[in-house]
Amino acid sequence: MEINQRPYHLVVFGASGFTGQFVAEEVAREQVASGQSSSLPWAVAGRSREKLQRVLERAALKLGRPTLSSEVGIIICDVTNPASLDEMAKQAAIVLNCVGPYRFYGEPVVKACVENGTSCIDICGEPQFLELMYWKYHEKAAEKGAYIIGSSGFDSIPADLGVIYTKNKMNGTLTAVESFLTIHSGPEGLCIHDGTWKSAVYGFGDQSNLKKLRNEANLKPVPIIGPKLKRRWPLSYCRELSSYSVPFLGADVSVVRRTQRYLHENLEQSPVQYAAYINMGGITSVIKLMFAGLFFLFFVRFGIGRQLLIKFPWLFSFGYFSKQGPTQKQMDGSSFTLRFFGQGYSQGFGPEKGKPNTRICTQVKGPEPGYVATPIAMVQAAMTLLNDASDLPSMGGVFTPGAAFFRTKLIDRLNQRGMEFSVISSSEV
């Protein structure tokens, strides 16, 4: 990466958006935490200078840094103006792209970054966009030495790096992992900005194109080591956590599987099977979710239904999503726990000798996922790109977080910033 030849190490694109403002704040916080105020030149980018200035002023007030807004560059660019994106990309070593839904606004940014040899990190949770960018830009990015790394927020760094962490901590061969996500909310409750809701609506409404993309890719199946991981029922009870759970429909499974394919095909590592679930708590929460899910799955099939879902997110999500997003109190009171249950074979033992004989339980624990953990993950991914260059894949390309960062110190960085990776238990059966 051309770090020293560019005016800015980092540019936060879409910094005046709901998530972007928190990413900009996190970059400013990282400057202080790492003692890099003078050696980490950065800028914010977007359509409105006034809005970007206000974001910097709010961050300056919150962090007690009155000179912040005069220290950070401002770049005016628009995702509908390719020339302005080129100008932004030429000034940055890494673009942190916060402008979604990515299926509509993501590709022009990737294209500009690849063509100008600029690395790009996004926080996309849309499998179709992530997989399409790989097929369209991987080879060109490799030629240009640009690292294009998707899903580097709560989707899907905790899951992707969590599986790698579990694999590294197991004394033997990890063959399968199930993860269970629990979201904890405080007295003010839980709320998610409707940008995430829009991405979900458009993603579920376009499932056929994702299937078509995967069929056209015609990838050779990754080998299954040990017994095939069985899918749970759409509603199942997790005894270990005393909670009902449903399949997690985010990008985690797609991202983890792509990482495992990369590690197997490029480094001859044993691939890990993976399934993801989200805990719903007691029966009352389950009933509420079932009604919301039925409404969603019915309306998302039709154009007018999708319009209604997008216009009234609070109504159709039973209050979980809103156009205003969460309050500061809601964010302060929220956190997540992602628990991994893995199985495999101890050293010297393998599938030919019978069933898996080793189990391990690990977890990733962190603050509010959408607007606290996501900026932390994104910014630490960027710092890893800047500082751990020798541990990255030797050439650029389009990567999952796990494929890009499995040799780096990213997990250590996340631990230091409040996203804790730990082993709960490990035993030989």
TrEMBL record:
<feature type="transmembrane region" description="Helical">
    <location>
        <begin position="274"/>
        <end position="300"/>
    </location>
</feature>
<dbReference type="InterPro" id="IPR051276">
    <property type="entry name" value="Saccharopine_DH-like_oxidrdct"/>
</dbReference>
<comment type="similarity">
    <text>Belongs to the saccharopine dehydrogenase family.</text>
</comment>
<dbReference type="InterPro" id="IPR036291">
    <property type="entry name" value="NAD(P)-bd_dom_sf"/>
</dbReference>
<keyword id="KW-0812">Transmembrane</keyword>
<feature type="domain" description="Saccharopine dehydrogenase NADP binding">
    <location>
        <begin position="11"/>
        <end position="149"/>
    </location>
</feature>
<dbReference type="GO" id="GO:0005886">
    <property type="term" value="C:plasma membrane"/>
</dbReference>
<dbReference type="InterPro" id="IPR005097">
    <property type="entry name" value="Sacchrp_dh_NADP-bd"/>
</dbReference>
<keyword id="KW-1133">Transmembrane helix</keyword>
<keyword id="KW-0472">Membrane</keyword>
<dbReference type="GO" id="GO:0009247">
    <property type="term" value="P:glycolipid biosynthetic process"/>
</dbReference>
<protein>
    <recommendedName>
        <fullName>Saccharopine dehydrogenase-like oxidoreductase</fullName>
    </recommendedName>
</protein>
<dbReference type="GO" id="GO:0005811">
    <property type="term" value="C:lipid droplet"/>
</dbReference>
<dbReference type="Pfam" id="PF03435">
    <property type="entry name" value="Sacchrp_dh_NADP"/>
</dbReference>
<dbReference type="GO" id="GO:0005739">
    <property type="term" value="C:mitochondrion"/>
</dbReference>
